[in-house]
Amino acid sequence: MVELDHLTFSYDGNREVLSDISFDLKAGETIGLIGANGAGKSTLLKILAGLLTDYKGQAKIDGLDVNKKNLAAVRKKTGYVFQDSESQLFLSTVYEDVAFGPRNYGCVGKELEEKVMSALKQVHIEELKDRPIYRMSGGQKKLAAIATILSMEPEVILFDEPSVGLDPKNRRNLINIINGISGLKIIASHDLDMIFDTCNRTILIEKGKLICEGETEKILTDQRLLEKSGLELPLSMQKRDV
Amino acid sequence: MSKLQQAIDNLHEADREAGKRSGKSRIHPVSRLLVCVAYIGIVVSFPKYDVTGLLGMSLFIIITGILEDLSFIKGFQRMKYILAFVVLLGAVNPFLDKRIVMQTGGVTVTGGMLSMMTLFIKGVLTVYAAYFMFMCTGIEQLCRALRCLKVPKGAVTVVLLIYRYIIVLLKEIQRMSLAYRLRAPGQKGIHIKVWGSFAGLLLLRSMERAQNVYDSMLLRGYDGEFQYEILGQEKTGKGLGAVYAAGWIGIFLLLRCVPVFQMAGNIFLSIGQ
Known about the structure:
The complex is a heterodimer of chains A (about 240) and B (about 270).
Chain A: E1 2-10, E2 16-25, E3 30-34, H1 41-49, E4 56-61, E5 64-65, H2 71-77, E6 78-81, H3 85-88, H4 94-104, H5 109-122, H6 138-150, E7 156-160, H7 168-180, E8 184-188, H8 192-198, E9 201-206, E10 209-215, H9 216-220, H10 223-228
Chain B: H1 3-24, H2 29-45, H3 51-67, H4 72-89, H5 93-96, E1 100-104, E2 107-110, H6 111-148, H7 153-183, H8 195-219, H9 238-257, H10 260-272
Antiparallel strand pairs in B: 1-2
């Protein structure tokens, strides 16, 4: 579903933000993308979403090259949940915002309403459909942002730091929701406990280079590997002094 | 509540109200836009001393306000700065044009006073017309109407983004001024020394956020086209919109060419005699 082959990217042409990244991801997988600040996680997601296209190497989504020519088709297949929900939501009510994507793809009438309501139900906020966005809490905005993506029924969903700014209850709710979503999910996060609870495979990058990929449990329990890359064991696995 | 927060809330509230009203409206946004443009054009074209003629044009504003259940007071509160500016525009006229045009009961009315009044009425009517049109269509439908009128994609996207950018900009100003005030207690406003860096940083930060909003639109299939319709307008034939536009534009032309109110006044006066 997602294929990267020797992908290299630089914003200014000098310093490589991503260097020689290659991996294949299959449909139905949930992938954790971890790494310290500035490792290149968000940049990688932006390339997959088609927001950055001046890269070297190859990036494919469902067999389509991610380039300017295929941009519309690639974007139809991918959904990107922003780190900052405020930037993702720009219309007056939840319903209008969730309907924005399907409408742009020509969906109207009953079909549109069904798609919107189905997306809202998946994130359990159907009762908020007429709520003005600016009157919602951070947790509700995050769920509404996810619903805006789900209503387009993408094959690949990219999450950029989805648990940032959420309280424990909202975070747990988000984990359950992510686990309930089908399709390929790629989650870039520092929240290793969340990665542990949601992802079956994990990719570790450091300073733009792929360090390792494999089973989430194997990577997230390797203290030496994580510390070498500027990370720590997930909190739930750290020994506590009582 | 700070003035900035109030401004942000007002914008959100207006946006939400407009969205709600536009969803229920059975009149096509193109018709509303055309009527508004025609109205503004005709109001502006009135001669500078024709106060009675202009008062006749207020019929459109009054009827639209009543039929669409739009509050004049709320409108005044939201547009008060623009209205104040409009009033100021004509404030110098009485000093420039001192020609006596009328004398009633010992009161001398100069040309400047009349032209100031017409300018004020023109300003109020055109501002209200634009405000009511926006409140009945919303920014999305307004942009859709512009595309229907073959305004280039790029220009329509700019209109849409400027509108979105105003909210983003206000929020950034609020954040930055709050951060400033918290570290400069007792200081009134922002010190002149930091205005330059404040403005520069504000521009960069708001541009970055505006870029994110635009990215979010692109990633959800936006390409400058408005292919969709708002619920409720699906069944609306173009006929209703055409009748609405033709009806109102006809009335505007009648009010512009025939001094209806003056004639009515003359009739009343002749009956009295």
